Amino acid sequence: MNPVILFVSKLPAEIKNVWIEKIQKALPEELIVVTKNIASTELGRTVSDSAEIDKIEIAIVANPDLAELKKLKSLKWVHALGAGVEGLIDVARENKFQIVRMIDPNLANTMAESVLVWTLFINKKIPTYLEQQNNKLWKQQDCVSAYNCKVGFLGLGEMGIASANKLLENNFQVLGWSRSKKSIDGVQTFYGERELNDFVSQCQILICLLPLTNETKGIINRRLLKKLPKGASVINFSRGGMLNTDDLIKELDSEHIYHAVLDVFDQEPLAQESVLWSHNQITVLPHVAAITDPDTAAVIVAKNIKNYRNTSELREVVNLARGY
Question: Which pTM value belongs to this model?
Answer without folding.
Answer: 0.90
